[in-house]
Amino acid sequence: MTSRLWEKLKPYGMISPSLAVFGIFFIYPIFYMIYLSFFDWNFVSPTKNYVGLQNFTDLLSDKEFMQVLLNTTIYTFATVSLTLSISLAIALWLNRSGLFYGFVQGAIFSPHIISLVSISLLWSWLMDPEYGLLNWVIGLFGLSPLQWLSHPDTSLMSLILVAVWKGIGFNTLVFIAGLQSIPPSIYEAAALDRSKRWRTFRKLTLPMLSPTLFFLAIMSMIGSFQVFETIAIMTQGGPVNSTNTLVYYIYEYGFRFFKIGYASAAGVMLLIIVGVLTIIYFRMLSKRVHYR
What do the Gene Ontology cellular component annotations say (predicted)? Predict the structure, then answer.
């Protein structure tokens, strides 16, 4: 009995260090954040004032939070849709052998390995209204320079451009891996049936690529909701709150205004939104994914 019990408990013992780290650094902070959302605390005072659901009431009645939620939704939808569509188009083009295509794959993937801090500083210079390279290129065509990061109409679009530029490389390589896993015999059968390219792509390539597309879409959505570095470095949520998103909003109220309870309530709202969207995404699209 002792040996059988040991055989059953041994796998759990082997993964217990990882489970402990996961519980301490992931699970415990989530529950502690939920706990703090019911209190009014300034991060310095040793006492916490219980306020119940007041933080959530103030949050949902705050026009600034609603604007932040709208900004996050627009940023997420635009970033995910543009990144996936452009990456898929590039992957279809690069899915072939040759030194040139290998070089292009490496060049496209290179932004993924660069830190967001470095990328944000680089694009801040490129988008400088007076000395930036982008406005210099626009001026060659006789167009007026743009206030990329200093005008409400273009600031969020500029951040989306940066996110798409960084995310294309990783998604492209994952798409290429998915395309190369499709058996060539399927395309040979389609060629014998004289199937057109668009019909082959819609009826064969997309269904066979659906697991890859499903994975990249869900990961891109979660990552877009958690955007922070580019906003903190490039715009600080401005101008006029036009680029403020949920994570930067939580950071501001938690570590600049020291409203820990209010920031925790915003964090709980972020957790609920991402969780609900993930469940809806799985319910709606999981049946459309083909693993065979």
Answer: plasma membrane
Please state the φ and ψ torsions of residue 39, each to the nearest 5 degrees: -130, 160
Residue 48 lies in a domain: no
How many domains does the chain contain in total? 1
pLDDT digits (tens, 9 = 90+) for 142-190: 888 888 998 899 999 999 999 999 999 999 999 999 898 888 888 888 8
Domain that holds residue 120: 54-288
Kindly provide the b/e burial profile for residues 168-203, where b requires at least 16 CB atoms within 10 angstroms of the residue's own CB. Answer: bbbbbbbbbebbeeeeeeeeeebeeeebeeeebeee
Asked if pLDDT for residue 3 goes beyond 80, the answer is no
84 CB neighbour count, 10 Å cutoff: 19
CATH code of residue 72: 1.10.3720.10
Q: Is residue 14 part of a domain?
A: no
| 233-256 burial code (b ≥16 CB/10 A, e <16) | bbbebebeebbbbbbbbbbbbbee
What confidence score (pLDDT) does residue 12 get?
A: 84
Q: Tell me whether residue 189 is in a domain.
A: yes
Instruction: Identify whether 19 is part of a domain.
Output: no
pTM: 0.90
